Amino acid sequence: xxxxxxxxxxxxxxxxxxxxxxxxxxxxxxxxxxxxxxxxxxxxxxxxxxxxxxxxxxxxxxxxxxxxxxxxxxxxxxxxxxxxxxxxxxxxxxxxxxxxxxxxxxxxxxxxxxxxxxxxxxxxxxxxxxxxxxxxxxxxxxxxxxxxxxxxxxxxxxxxxxxxxxxxxxxxxxxxxxxxxxxxxxxxxxxxxxxxxxxxxxxxxxxxxxxxxx
Length: 214
What we know:
This protein has 214 residues and is an alpha/beta fold.
């Protein structure tokens, strides 16, 4: 069966890894590693997994975790920048951290904050922390988010990165049944080229993409 990449839509893909539960394919073009759609959870089962999360803006450990994206992105923002936390989850926290610094924030989450009107607005920065690995159609979602960025806007992502087949086989990250798309540094560089964005890696699990001027 031909496996079309859910990020770049190319069909040159090959089996990257297989375990007892799922198969993982890698795209030869953008190097995304992905689980085929017939092995994804349905929406109800997916939400049931997210309902187990106990994240809260009152949790200092969670704030520290989010700080890995918050701190480098904050240093780049102009005063009065307007942001969107995409995939904000059941306990929105990153949006609270930016609001505390005086930024106007919106949130969106398909399960917990499904106000689609924010997806028609423009933002100076958009964050997605521990989100892109859950996307069954990352190409469609990234196209949407990039289109919502103002000139010179930032897209800040946090997700653990693929490094090698050997490490992947032992990786705890693939044991989460809601994780279906896995990005490497090469994948993010492809994203930067495809959408004409500058790419920066301020930390092991963090990438900042900035819209270039045409």
